[in-house]
Amino acid sequence: MYINGVWENADKALEVTNPANGEVIGSVPDGGREDAARAIDAAAKAFPAWSGLTAYQRSDYLYRAHKIMMERREDLARMMTLEQGKPIRASRNEVGYAADFLLWYAEEAKRVYGETIPAPRGDQRFIVAHQPVGVVAAVTPWNYPISMLTRKIAPALAAGCTIVLKPAEATPLCAVETFKIFEEAEIPAGVVNLVTAADPVPIGAEFTSNPTVRKITFTGSTAVGKKLAADAAAQLKRVSMELGGHAPFLVFKDADPVHAAKGASLVKFLNTGQACISPNRLFVHSSIVEPFVETLTERVTRMRGGNGMEDGISIGPLVNEAAIAKVERQVEDAKEKGATVMCGGHRLMDDGLDKGHFYAPTVLTGVTEAMTIYREETFGPVAPVIAFDDDETALTMANDTHYGLAAYVYTNNISRAMRMFEGLRFGIVGINDINPTAAAAPFGGAKESGLGREGGREGIVEYLETKLGGFSV
Ligand code: NAD
């Protein structure tokens, strides 16, 4: 753990395993509530000096961290593949994406502008300023084990906040490597703190009940996000929540079904489907469903599962047995209710893959509303295809979910593209675009997919309080 600028151990250790083969690859301290409380104290003590720096000074620290992260890209990527399982190329991409947040907020730190507002009285002046909210507590997931950290830490530090972060128990080694970068960038003691733990519950309880914490930022499941937000409400702490998703992927009759199927195969199986913006229902116009499914199935059949360190692997392991069990349950349920398995539909067991958590990339057709997969987030490599006949029905079905994170549309008709962009109740809509994300763009969900935005101009606002000054002159 990294508390007040010092690396610390705990009495117990949390072992970390490689999800591709079950081997133990390291361990981190198994911290507890006391450690979280000490880290919060350290962050509170560091806050006055850190928030008192100029934006230019804070920006310099972030530039330095960005430079070190890019120099370490290969080492970090290898650690990510070992610990999380994604193919090494995807890990390299993620490190680049993670570093982008450090760079973007190094720049954005200097653009926290206020404003003056014409006042109703002649002898009155209004000014609006933005100040850091204070100590931030952050909780992050395992699926993007470095970028989800910098997406929170970079804007928080740029705004002048100090922070305590608890990473996911499956991927704490990536967090340790990330915090080494902050240490080397000479970010002052107490500004960034890391608490690792096998049991997140006591840490979460300290984060939500400690009055020093003024903001909770969380990325993970909707269930845990709701619990943390409810607990934080007791002290009216500010919250940002990046939660689950159930992205629709709509392919209209004017789209090229082969091009759309290529896009679907890339975005659906990214990170083995373990992404909050992963398509969970593929709605395809009935006139082109056949060539779409043919191309998708052909591409998915060619995908190779295995250890992400090896060449040519595009399907890494799922995070654990519970994740496999969830995928199996959803596929069995769909089969029982009449879906057709075009490819996959089983665990991968050959060539030593039985030692890891591998599931074959799967395409299902004939999926209906009655099936669990139609509503429940899969977080695994399964592409369920549903045919539709008219735009309005497709839009209604796409919106028929309590999630609202990402949606994708394939069409070559500009009016239809605009109608869908406006009509889809999701925070992110990709129009013929399977990667509508960047450090410069606001990422976040509607409905039960979250509160607030990360990245972009909006990302730093989450860490700022608005202050009005009224002056009589
Ligand atoms: P999870 O909610 O189980 O865990 C996320 C984090 O919360 C982990 O660090 C975990 O230790 C911690 N946690 C769990 N219970 C806690 C508690 N009571 N108090 C404090 N912390 C607690 O989710 P997961 O399975 O690790 O991640 C997958 C989920 O995350 C999916 O639903 C996915 O859609 C979502 N996700 C969302 C985004 C986004 O930006 N919207 C990004 C990535 C993942």
Number of strands: 20
Portion of residues within helices = 25-40%
User: Strand order within the widest sheet?
Assistant: 14-15-16-13-12-17-18
If you compute it from the alpha carbons, what radius of gyration comes out, rounded to the nearest whole angstrom? 23 Å
Count of separate structural domains: 2
- Relevant CATH superfamily of the largest domain: Aldehyde Dehydrogenase, Chain A, domain 1
Largest sheet: 7 strands, mixed
Q: Assess the beta-strand content as a share of residues.
A: 15-25%
Average pLDDT, all residues: 98
Using the coordinates above, name the CATH class of the largest domain: Alpha Beta
Write up what this structure looks like.
The chain has about 475 residues and is α/β, with parallel strands linked by helices. It has two domains: about 1-245 and about 445-470, 3-Layer(aba) Sandwich (Aldehyde Dehydrogenase, Chain A, domain 1), CATH 3.40.605; about 245-430, Aldehyde Dehydrogenase, Chain A, domain 2 (3-Layer(aba) Sandwich), CATH 3.40.309. Helix content is about 40%, strand content about 20%. The protein is built from 14 helices and 20 strands. The protein has helices at about 35-50, 55-70, 75-85, 90-110, 145-160, 170-185, 200-210, 220-235, 255-270, 290-300, 320-335, 390-400, 415-425, 455-460, and strands spanning about 1-5, 5, 15, 25-30, 115, 125-130, 135-140, 160-165, 190-195, 215-220, 240, 245-250, 280-285, 340-345, 360-365, 380-390, 405-410, 430, 450, 465-470. It has a seven-stranded mixed beta sheet with strand order 14-15-16-13-12-17-18, sandwiched between helices. Helix 6 links the parallel strand 8 (about 160-165) and strand 9 (about 190-195). Helix 7 (about 200-210) packs parallel to helix 8. The longest helix is centred in the N-terminal third of the chain and has 21 residues, at about 90-110. The N and C termini lie far apart (about 50 Å). The model has no long low-confidence stretch (mean pLDDT about 100). The protein binds nicotinamide-adenine-dinucleotide. Nicotinamide-adenine-dinucleotide binds next to helix 7 and helix 8.
